[in-house]
Amino acid sequence: MAGVGGEVVTTAAEIESYRRDRAHDPNVGTPIAVVLAESTADVQAAVRWAALHGVVVVTRGAGTGLSGGSSAIDGGIVISTERMRAHSIDVQTRVAVVQPGLLNAEVKAFAGEHGLWYPPDPASFEICSIGGNVATNAGGLCCVKYGVTADYVLGMEVVLSDGRAVRFGGPLVKDVAGLSLLKLFVGSEGTLGIITEITLRLLPAQPAPRTVVGWFSSTEEAAAAILEIASRLRPSMLEYLDRTSINAVEDMLGLGLDRGAAALVVARSDMQGAGDPEIPTMLDALLRHGATSAFECADAAEGERYAHARRMVIPAVELQGSLMLEDVGVSITRLPELVAGVERIAAAHDVTIAFIAHAGDGNTHPLVVFDPADQDLTARATLAYGEVMDLALELGGTITGEHGVGRLKRPWLVNQIGVDVLEISQRIKDALDPAGLFSPGVIFEGTTARNPKELS
How many CB atoms are located within 10 Å of the residue 216 CB? Predict the structure, then answer.
């Protein structure tokens, strides 16, 4: 690979760890090389080499994706952005310029050093990269009040399939010159170009939150309480854990959680002052809908213990087996139906489905547990996985709220957006990537990259 910038990895042992993300795509391939880019110029050189030789490209960040979006392809190359970690912050305008390899937690830390805050906070914020967050338009626990990644992206630099590096947007909050191409690339999952720099909007540091906890003996009552809270307030967090999730976290961390509870609701308010109406309103809703116990945490440390319990559910449930991870979303008014429906699906197929949710905005994470060595269980889990997405669509929802379509959810995409919208999307893909160079099989039908000379 002469002329390709950055370190190029080609041995099987070194390549292995770059083949898949956390989705455990069963159809993952083996690339011929991994390019460890350190700059936009490195990415440009790798893309130009790939285009010249008709080799497909998969972009990879921290490898924490949950939909197979960074699964390697046989005969292709992987361009890793993990070494692209430069950053700067303009305190006066509250704007950060970062490369994609920084972790979400690092962006938060750098902002915090200047009394600023980057709000989007996926549960995996300590290990996921900001580039991956932008590629999937990631959300998180505080999004019910503060929005998702797209709400904080002001600009970006992108390497296109012909090797050009172009900029969309910039540091200005208001800028409507030309078509809004910036938002087209947020959530594009590596299918349109490779993001090499991101300009982010920051906020003043977040006030210290107050945390409310509600324990329930019925999932229906917990869902009803969540619906009332969400209809009356915009809490800074409103999360849900079911019994399976609670017990998995307790097995792993021993936090003293109530193993007998059917559901746990964790909510937060960051309003300040003794007159804060949100805490009593949330406590009232929890108790009136049947909470066996509802209380405000005594201090920040206790509140963080419950927030940490929510963040640790996925790694805790992973100790029980391999996971098929969903992130279906519904209108908050349909959340009780989704909770009940997932429970029915789990029972019908005799599989374990742990259910957690960013409940305040209807984005849920049913986690289907299976054992790849057990063919019967895997088959039943696969059916359950599909039926959960079917159920979300029946309820007017989405097959993905923040993880992306990737490769694993693509078969259901047309059922949500329709043939016409999918065809329009394909036209955009073809216009920006006519040779099918970037991430074939992600969102769109898989194709093999072609040498540009074949297109003339």
Answer: 27
